[in-house]
Amino acid sequence: MSAGYPSPAALLHKYGLRAKKSWGQNFLGDEAILDDIARLAVEAPGERVVELGAGLGHLTARLLARGAEVIAVERDRDMAAVLRGELGERIRLLEADAVKLDYRALHGGGKLAVVGNLPYHLTSPILFALLDQPEAVSRAVFLVQREVAERLAAGPGGKQWGLLSVLLQHRAAVTLERRVPRGAFLPPPEVESAVVRIAFGPPRAPVTDPARFRRLVKAGFAQRRKVLANALASARLAPPDALAAALAGAGIDGRRRGETLTVEEWAALERALGPAGAS
């Protein structure tokens, strides 16, 4: 079925539509890239896959061809009409906001795979939503701006290493799978894109309080030019003497910058702050 699915241009013409720039709509029509994304998202027939921003249904059709049970999430009523017209009852269509999705209510007793072509302005909110519900998701495969993908998959020690890098890699293995040129889309975006795969699993290192861990890492990167001790003191996560003791207890020099710490060091620092609520 997927091989015979109409092109983005043909579907837009058929339904009298145009891509909405304000919604960040750029439709991927390259068959090889679509097949790659579907292969990364669906490892076995029968898996339940949530597709965020299903759009015109090009990736949706390939997910179905691989035997997935597809829950297509699409907030744009025009796109939802295309999905109903082209794929009908083969999918479960949710006209909902992808940022506010409750994955726990959709997993049906197993874990979900999540896939989608994410507009830049929604990438971080969607990733944080996944981080709030990692127990419901086995993997996520996203098409995002290339610079974003490189940051998510980066290692410590450079400018690309940041809050989302640490938080995601604490709960998942993150790999940049392939770059996607502008010409693969209609209309072509202004930037290059890339496919990133996020395979969720147990925490890479234990933490006492996940919410405090997130606040700690956020504080460490909020003022990147400051040394770690000063950045954390500015955030007032704990009294100065408690922070100094935690840094010493974790074996971390407070004169380092947050971007030099590994996931394991961030976790050790959080644990060194003591029982949740004590700081």
Automatic annotation (TrEMBL):
Keyword tRNA processing included in the entry's annotation: no
InterPro entries for the chain: KsgA/Erm, rRNA_Ade_diMease-like_C, rRNA_Ade_Mease_Trfase_CS, rRNA_Ade_methylase_Trfase_N, rRNA_adenine_dimethylase, SAM-dependent_MTases_sf
Main enzyme class: transferase
Pfam short name (any one): RrnaAD
Single annotated GO MF: RNA binding
Keyword annotations: Cytoplasm, Methyltransferase, RNA-binding, rRNA processing, S-adenosyl-L-methionine, Transferase
PANTHER family, per database record: DIMETHYLADENOSINE TRANSFERASE (PTHR11727), DIMETHYLADENOSINE TRANSFERASE-RELATED (PTHR11727:SF7)
Function: Specifically dimethylates two adjacent adenosines (A1518 and A1519) in the loop of a conserved hairpin near the 3'-end of 16S rRNA in the 30S particle. May play a critical role in biogenesis of 30S subunits.
Protein name (database record): Ribosomal RNA small subunit methyltransferase A
Organism: Anaeromyxobacter diazotrophicus
Record lineage: Bacteria, Pseudomonadati, Myxococcota, Myxococcia, Myxococcales
